[in-house]
Write a structure and sequence with these properties.
Length: 165
Amino acid sequence: MERFTNDRNQFVEAIENELMEYEKQKDFEHLFTYVEVPFFLRYAFSYALWFDKNNSKYFLKRKEWNAKYDHSRFDKGIYNLDRLAIIENEVSLNDTDRAYFDKVEWTLLNTIDFEGIVLDGLTCKLRIGKENKTLVWNPDSKMNNKLKELVYLIRNWKRKFDDFK
């Protein structure tokens, strides 16, 4: 039986969960999964990275929610939580990106205190496999510098992918 709802929060949670979950890659160490969902649901995407120590090889996948398509299907505010329009692709890393990940210090990625009010913005989640922790934040000002480096690199991948489409 398919799950339907008219609750926007359940819809957003279903999108986030679908983007966060990737099939486990055999013999690969999970390094991270990053998910970004804006408040106004214009888009949503995720990237996940694994590393094969035996072959010194990275494996990167991305998912993207087709917001335009789902908004047209769910225009009455009734959402089918089991049929979200999400596509998944494998992505290749260039030499610069591989060199970056060779030296990332995962323990230094963190959020920092932020005083202020955020009326909309992004929901960002980073699950760090090596540290077995998940960071969640809204404004970019909650990211420390090491986290910003990683997130801006991922957002740059997204921009390049969007430009390629």
